[in-house]
What does this fold into?
Amino acid sequence: MPTDSPRKAKRDPWPQELGACVRAARKKAGLTQEALAEKAKLAPRTIQKIEAGHIMILASTVRRLRKELGCRYDDLLPD
It folds into this structure.
């Protein structure tokens, strides 16, 4: 017999882990979300969504963030 309760889909933890790495690198660089967004030519809301793990980002965006944060790729990518 079917149930009325919706199933919870398993979420990929990778975007949230990436977001945490971006947040840590941003804070280490002493930048606000707005400042990083301006430097990386992204919308501030995009930085917020990345750090919250709400969106997947392209490799080109990771490259832009790495450049503006002055860090290595390993600093931004979760294990």
Remarks:
- The chain is about 60% helix and 0% strand.
- The mean pLDDT is 90.
- Residues 14-28 form the longest helix (15 residues).
- The CA atoms of residues 21 and 76 lie 5 Å apart.
